[in-house]
Design goal:
Strand order of the largest sheet: 2-1-5-3-4
Helix content: 25-40%
Bound molecules: FE2/S2 (inorganic) cluster
CATH superfamily of the largest domain: Beta-grasp domain
Number of strands: 5
Number of helices: 5
Largest sheet: 5 strands, mixed
CATH topology of the largest domain: Ubiquitin-like (UB roll)
């Protein structure tokens, strides 16, 4: 099936098998490997991308059903000159990552949270990141990063 998307602001298209997952198209066809696969069963959140303005687990979306969608991946967040998105910078500054495997999904989910609930309490941040699993950090610094990134995004 011919799937047409806008990815990080650029129109792309690819002929992919009907059962291709969105994460497979992003990683294997478009070679945007910042979106990770941690479980393939919709549990870990490593594959989280923005789809039409909402964070989605791209391992749970068929590429075909995303046809025509506006997709945002971690590669599209920084500016052309390399300046990080405020949420990326906050994760770096607050040590919100160790191995980094979960980080692209965490950052995308965190931006979605701030867009939808900029006044989120610490508990609401923790609740909203329940679908993103981190095996390294213990989450404390991730929560700090989200709070710091939120402040920078709202400034
Ligand atoms: S790879 Fe999609 S949720 Fe884990
Ligand atoms: S930083 Fe390693 S899984 Fe989160």
């Amino acid at each position: 099936m011919l799937v047409q998307l806008t990815v990080n602001g650029k129109p792309v298209q690819a002929d992919v098998p009907d059962n291709t997952l969105l994460v497979q198209m992003i990683r294997d066809t478009l070679h945007l490997t910042g979106t990770h696969v941690g479980c393939d069963t919709s549990q870990c959140g490593a594959c989280t991308v923005m789809m039409n303005g909402n964070a989605v687990k791209s391992c749970s979306v068929l590429a075909a059903s995303a046809n025509g969608a506006d997709i945002g991946t971690i590669e599209g967040l920084a500016q052309q000159d390399g300046t990080l998105h405020p949420m990326q910078a906050a994760f770096k500054e607050c040590h919100g990552l160790q191995c980094g495997y979960c980080t692209p999904g965490m950052v995308m989910s965190s931006i979605d949270l701030v867009n939808k609930n900029p006044d989120a309490s610490e508990q609401e941040i923790r609740d909203s990141l329940e679908g993103n699993i981190c095996r390294c950090t213990g989450y404390q610094n991730i929560v700090r990063a989200v709070q710091s990134g939120r402040d920078a995004m709202m400034a």
